[in-house]
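FAQ

Q: What does a record look like?
A: Structure on top, sequence underneath. For example:
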């Protein structure tokens, strides 16, 4: 029986749907099944004319990146396919014709941080921390332009080149996160100033370079298609383990 990786609440309020990443034992890392479930859920939101989508994570962390627990079974080609599907998911979230809200907590890393950055509203509970280690760690270009749009090119370059952790205060100051909220805050009631879905879609088109999605996918594919992706990820994982043991 397939692993239950995503909880979907369809009656969260008028026009509101909630998705809960549900792999808490592994920090909600993005397995192939979870990516597929998220993509299907986004498609369903479009079909059902959802007005607002809220994405959260179960357990201690929002999302700690790509699940590489079975890395030994992967190949360069299978990893390339997985990262392409993640980029397509991020594009679907970023281009969604409805309001997308990510509520982060704990650690938010790699593709998990890219998922957070792809959402229109980006909120935190507690002191979340963020990291974008893909480029410095193993040469992967994923989500760079979207991040630069939020925080500016210089800041994005600094974060990506270093792969360091960004605390909640810095994330707020730079625009990656927009606000802190607590458990009592109600996100279900749509604002009277929220445009309808068709108007929002037109606004998004007016503000977005229509060529950007294809460019993002091309850059991701070129970086992931370089021979030795699996080896680079293995070397990165070994460096992370060694650093934790020090």
């Amino acid at each position: 029986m397939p692993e239950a990786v995503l909880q979907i609440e369809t009656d969260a309020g008028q026009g509101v749907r909630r998705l809960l990443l549900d792999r808490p034992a592994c920090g909600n890392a993005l397995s192939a099944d979870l990516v597929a479930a998220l993509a299907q859920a986004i498609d369903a939101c479009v079909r059902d004319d959802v007005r607002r989508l809220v994405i959260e994570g179960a357990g201690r962390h929002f999302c700690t990146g790509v699940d590489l627990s079975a890395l030994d079974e992967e190949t360069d080609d299978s990893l390339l396919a997985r990262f392409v599907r993640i980029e397509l998911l991020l594009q679907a979230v970023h281009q969604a014709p409805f309001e997308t809200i990510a509520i982060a907590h704990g650690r938010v890393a790699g593709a998990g941080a890219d998922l957070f950055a792809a959402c229109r509203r980006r909120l935190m509970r507690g002191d979340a921390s963020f990291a974008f280690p893909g480029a410095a760690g193993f040469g992967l270009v994923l989500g760079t332009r979207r991040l630069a749009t939020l925080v500016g090119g210089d800041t994005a370059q600094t974060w990506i080149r270093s792969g360091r952790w960004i605390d909640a205060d810095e994330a707020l100051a730079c625009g990656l996160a927009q606000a802190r909220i607590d458990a009592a805050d109600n996100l279900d009631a749509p604002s009277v100033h929220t445009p309808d879905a068709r108007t929002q879609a037109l606004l998004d088109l007016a503000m977005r370079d229509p060529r950007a999605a294809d460019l993002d996918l091309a850059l991701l594919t070129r970086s992931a298609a370089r021979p030795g992706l699996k080896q680079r990820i293995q070397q990165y994982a070994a460096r992370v383990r060694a650093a934790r043991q020090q």
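Q: Is there anything notable about this one?
A: The beta strands are 6-9, 16-21, 52-57, 99-104, 107-109, 121-125, 129-131, 179-181.
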